[in-house]
Amino acid sequence: MLCFVNPLQFRKTHPRKLSPHGESVTNARTESAAVESSYAIVHRSIELPLDSSLMLRSPTMLIDTHTHLDDARYNEDREAVISRARDAGVETFLTIGCDVATSQAAVALAERYPFIYASIGVHPHEVKHVRDNWYDTFRHLARNKNVVAYGEIGLDYHYNHSSPKEQRDRFREQIQLARELALPVIIHTREAQEDTIAILKEEKASEIGGVFHCFSGDAWLAKEALDLGFYLSFSGILTFQNAAPLKEIAKTMPLDRVLIETDCPYLTPVPYRGKRNEPAYVSQVAKQLATLHSELSLEEVQRTTTVNARRLFKIA
Ligand SMILES: [Zn+2]
Ligand SMILES: [Zn+2]
Prior knowledge:
Layout lengths: L23 E4 L11 E4 L19 E6 L10 H10 L2 E6 L4 H13 L3 E5 L13 H8 L5 E10 L7 H18 L3 E6 L2 H10 L7 E3 L6 H9 L3 E4 L9 H9 L5 E3 L21 H11 L5 H16 L3
The protein binds zinc ion (2 copies).
């Protein structure tokens, strides 16, 4: 159990509180394949010195809507990573849960920093570990005001770390839970487009809305996502040389339905390929979007994607 300092001046506007504790799950993803792969459990703490100077930086216009800031790869320099992102104009971050431990860690980070928000839920790779009490734990975590989304949830038939049937069953249950909690959903889908859309429709996910994170699907999925009222979130994949089809899709997306993310520590964008990814680099995704939407300035892309994220996650 960790104790986190939460001075009054760092409180967000809502009154709910929680005493979180954290352990971490780590993705081991091959960047070249631009995909997520298996998780290795890493037990650790995320206790940090609190740097109040982080609060003093002027807010700018980027929101990294998908980070794994609890990841063990940040254990040595998490504070510096966050500081660099703030310096690069990232005003707000979402840090994402993939199981109970990482959801608790995400909430703990969000408790610590007023500009970090959390999501909770079970990644499709991890759903084989779901136990009876997990959903009640998520219900409890969701009472924390910093929890603004449910996910990442979905289907990943590329790795099948959990069986496809388990993935589908837990995906449905978690959409139902997100509806109960009135939280938008963060969707992870890989090689499972049709099933993902079918389940989202059957479970009436459009009532809560959400985002296809790290979008790398085809034009059909993009259209279905928009028809459901969902957002598409582009990551560093958009900067990759071999991402021509994705760039074509990004060009045609209405910008008011687009978010940006790093999915750090994975999927490092050009020109930082080969390095660990971090939220500061979300600016590269915005730049690439502005290049693709040549009718728009970089400032318009930054402002619009930020407004979109605020709207979807209801953050001030
Ligand atoms: Zn994902
Ligand atoms: Zn992720």
